[in-house]
Design brief:
9 helices; 3-stranded parallel β-sheet; single chain; 37% helix; alpha/beta; 13% strand
Length: 291
């Protein structure tokens, strides 16, 4: 397969914690030169039908996508699934269970923020939620900016909502084996999202990558909006060491909040196999007639 000229395989819509609809994201991707696009909402696939229809209308090749919340070594990590059957029963049931866990966690976050002198944060966060089952820290962050507590969402996450700070509530997500299993059983490719974000030691990261591979994971994100430039090549080299393909994605959430615009990533490092090669038969082609 000839690799797509420009892929962006990680972004979020109003079906999770993004601020744009799937259709608006498709239009933005096309306007920014993307030729292969995936929507990867958190623990949710309900936006994929709209995304796929909009992709066809824009002339974009499309991959199904999701970003699954995972607990590994007492750390929350994220596994992106690409090119899967979105109607797969086990995948649907697993994601449903994860969404059901978010409500109690959000209420606990609201209680902790109230104890820290920030009342009504839970109610305020709900104003930003397109899908109440997917209320997240990002929605709380947007409310704290609106309330004047912080100047932007980055400051919120620095001072609140993370371990050791007011508003943090622990959550047990899917296991790594479960998440990779859901994706691969649905005939998709599992990808480690933004690995540099987890601040693992060398030993912890090696264990993470090794476990991921043993469960059937096949790729990691190297070029992503969460990585610094020097990390692009570092994770491309690690991908080769472990036999992974590399994926790429802006992790775009909002025009006002995201560091990298949808479709604005630089090219992949030379010499690393791209995840598109694994997904060639799973891509929904825009140049095929759809009725």
């Amino acid at each position: 397969m000839q690799r797509p000229f420009h892929a962006d395989l990680h972004c979020h819509s109003t079906f999770s914690d993004g601020t744009l609809t799937p259709a608006a994201l498709a239009q933005r991707a096309q306007a920014n030169g993307v030729t292969l696009w995936a929507l990867t909402d958190h623990d949710e696939v309900e936006g994929l039908a709209e995304a796929q229809s909009a992709a066809y209308a824009c002339g974009l090749d499309f991959l199904t996508g999701v970003e699954i919340s995972v607990s590994f070594a007492d750390t929350t990590v994220h596994i992106v699934g690409l090119g899967f059957d979105a109607d797969n029963t086990a995948l649907q049931q697993g994601l449903h269970a994860l969404r059901n866990n978010r409500g109690p966690r959000a209420q606990e976050m609201g209680l902790q923020l109230a104890a820290a002198g920030i009342p009504n944060a839970y109610e305020g966060a709900l104003k930003y939620v397109g899908n109440p089952a997917l209320i997240s820290r990002t929605h709380f962050a947007r409310y704290l900016v609106e309330a004047g507590i912080c100047k932007d969402t980055y400051e919120v996450f620095k001072h609140f909502l993370v371990e050791g700070k007011p508003g943090y509530a622990p959550q047990r997500w899917a296991s790594l084996e479960e998440a990779v299993g859901w994706i691969t059983d649905a005939h998709g490719v599992a990808v480690i999202a933004h690995p540099a974000r987890y601040n693992f030691s060398h030993t912890e990261e090696y264990a993470f990558f090794s476990s991921f591979k043993s469960y059937g994971g096949q790729a990691i994100e190297a070029v992503t909006g969460s990585h610094a430039a020097h990390e692009f090549s570092r994770y491309a080299e690690l991908a080769k060491e472990f036999g992974f393909a590399i994926s790429r994605g802006s992790d775009f959430h909002s025009p006002q909040e995201s560091k990298i615009n949808l479709g604005a990533l630089p090219p992949d490092p030379a010499g690393a196999p791209g995840v598109g090669d694994l997904l060639a038969e799973r891509i929904h082609r825009a140049d095929i007639s759809h009725t």
